[in-house]
Design a protein that fits this description.
Largest sheet: 13 strands, parallel
Helix content: 10-25%
Number of domains: 2
Shape: globular
CATH architecture of the largest domain: 3 Solenoid
Number of strands: 36
CATH superfamily of the largest domain: Hexapeptide repeat proteins
CATH class of the largest domain: Mainly Beta
CATH topology of the largest domain: UDP N-Acetylglucosamine Acyltransferase, domain 1
Oligomer: single chain
Strand content: 25-35%
């Protein structure tokens, strides 16, 4: 049995706010997150070890109970950076070479077992890398940029194609590039347009009447596309989401809602997020200049013309919320109020200048999870309590 070790590198803070409570290998830019992609290709007869920050070890152990998380001793094997987007074509290289891409370590061969405490030092001492062009997630918006290429690859190599089940009064464009699971439903008046990229619809999805879905788009299981929705390309919708209005170049991680009208573009939406009716974000400055993005500890000139909002888990917006270009919304915030919101909103913010009441936040979160037949675990509660205590 071979060993695969998937690890977080030192760039993890650049994936905030998602990385507050997620590992780098949980980002997604196709039908899988990075971990799922590795497991799809290499998971059979493989011992999986995950190396993450100590503060999220409990959360990761709970999500992936079958794997070894931060063992004191790391087995010999193939070590893969969790921020790398690995496809099957790289398999032979991973088994035989140490790989770098754009100065980022992608993978290396660990010939002998190693103490966990020595892992990062070991990486820094490796000097025999082969240079190769492999996608690497430096920032959340890199996931958005990769949607077309990765989803096209997934359509060609990773999706089981079935005979297209056609519904009455539904328009299909470029049918060979459309996959819809037989358990899903497309209601009358909808348009599925795959001429610019694949449309992949997973199990038990409902696309309500009048929806327009223009590929590339992936909709994961148990999600609902609301009446008259306009998914205008480069959109990933995770499992158990409800999405309506106009959406383009955006990722919904899972269990999040944007049921009503409103525009969301060039954005990354975490889990258990609710965007109130008529929430809109700007994704382009009026003067077309480069967009600056503020993290908790620094501001970055992204050199990008288009960028929306990066939203952490459990955050909610009120009705008619106006979101500025290149905004950061931390986890657990309640965003509301007239006019444009601040471009940087810290975790557990209430409006523009107050802090969420923790007990009320937990009560609401438990209600949200119960509605999806999920429970707030003790580990997650303790994690949230600790993060909350660090916010001024």
């Amino acid at each position: 049995m071979k060993n695969i070790i998937i690890y977080e590198d030192n760039n993890i803070d650049k994936l905030s706010p998602f990385s507050i409570n997620h590992a780098s290998f949980e980002t997604k830019c196709g039908i899988y997150n990075n971990l799922g992609r590795i497991l799809h290709y290499y998971g059979a007869n493989t011992n999986i070890t995950l190396i993450v920050r100590d503060e999220i070890k409990g959360l990761i152990s709970e999500r992936y109970p079958s794997y070894n998380i931060n063992p004191p001793e790391i087995p010999s094997g193939i070590c893969i950076n969790g921020a790398a987007v690995i496809n099957k074509k790289y398999f032979d290289l991973l088994l035989s070479k140490n790989l770098k891409s754009n100065n980022n370590t992608i993978s290396f061969i660990l010939k002998n077992k190693l103490k966990l405490s020595d892992f990062n030092d070991h990486i820094n001492k490796i000097d025999d890398f082969d240079i190769i062009d492999i996608p690497y997630i430096s920032y959340l918006w890199d996931c958005i940029d990769l949607i077309p290429s990765i989803l096209n690859y997934d359509m060609a190599h990773n999706v089981k194609k079935n005979k297209l089940k056609k519904y009455d009064d539904v328009v299909y464009i470029n049918e060979d590039n459309i996959v819809i699971d037989n358990s899903s439903t497309i209601e009358p008046g909808s348009i599925i347009d795959a001429k610019n990229g694949p449309v992949i619809i997973s199990k038990n999805v409902i696309v309500q009447s009048g929806s327009i879905i223009k590929g590339p788009v992936f909709i994961d299981k148990n999600s609902l596309i609301s009446n008259g929705a306009k998914l205008k390309g480069n959109v990933l919708i995770g499992q158990t989401c409800k999405v309506g209005g106009e959406v383009t170049n955006t990722i919904f991680q899972g269990f999040s809602n944007k049921v009503h009208d409103g525009f969301i573009g060039h954005s990354y939406i975490g889990e258990w997020v609710n965007l109130g009716a008529n929430t809109n974000n700007s994704n382009l400055k009026n003067n077309y200049s480069s967009i600056k993005f503020t993290f908790p500890n620094n501001t970055l000139d992204t050199k990008r013309e288009f960028l929306g909002v990066m939203v952490g888990d459990y955050t909610r917006t009120g009705i008619s919320t106006m979101i500025n270009t290149g905004s950061y919304f931390g986890m657990g915030s309640n965003v509301f109020g007239s006019g444009f919101q601040n471009k940087f909103i810290d975790s557990f913010s209430w409006g523009k200048d107050a802090k969420v009441d923790f007990d009320k936040f937990i009560n609401t979160l438990e209600i949200m999870k119960n509605r999806r037949s999920k429970k707030l675990s003790k580990i997650e509660f303790k994690f949230l309590e600790k993060i909350y205590s660090k916010i001024n």
